[in-house]
């Protein structure tokens, strides 16, 4: 596992999505992405790569409707692969089945982007070694450049069959309504640090990662939250190293006016744009 996705960092765990058609979505996540179904019923499926931990949960609530335009919510969740070979083989797989995707070289990482059947954004990426990342004034230099696909595809050794069991949730990128409100929530409330900026966007992390969470107002300033039965993000997890740290951040969230409730063995809160978060210790 990446050193940035374990103690003492605060990193992203399970992402739960609302979808229009559960069975069709399962086919996409199995056949296109290479997940395995860990658990399933008529309205929910837990998807895994290691046979133990759900990385993505799909839910089909009653009365679900297509995604509204111009709201806060999910921009993309990002699956971090172990190495370049895995990304190369996944890209070859997408090329072979002619599934559309975009690419980017972010300097700190090499990435591709695609959407699921409901338009939920997905990034699949591999990090460059962290000793190659360039920092100045506590900000890491990132960019969006053309990915050298020819060079990357040389790494491919075998046909893609499934996501490697070491695949993790690398980060999540969210649409928010007001950037400053969201910045306060994630920095003062949750303890993240701004490590990069972009027009109308902040990238935040703990432990010197290029980002565990990104927030933007690219859907527009002041956009509403999606309705409860809209397709899209239901909730995502932030994993804390221990109960003491979790309790500390819960108190800080309450100090800035955020509502935090206990639900079994985790806490639930929402950022100012209505993105729901589960705070857990794993």
TrEMBL record:
It comes from the Bacteria. This is VOC family protein. Residues 11-127, 168-282 form the VOC domain. CDD domains: VOC_BsCatE_like_C, VOC_BsCatE_like_N. It comes from Fervidibacillus halotolerans.
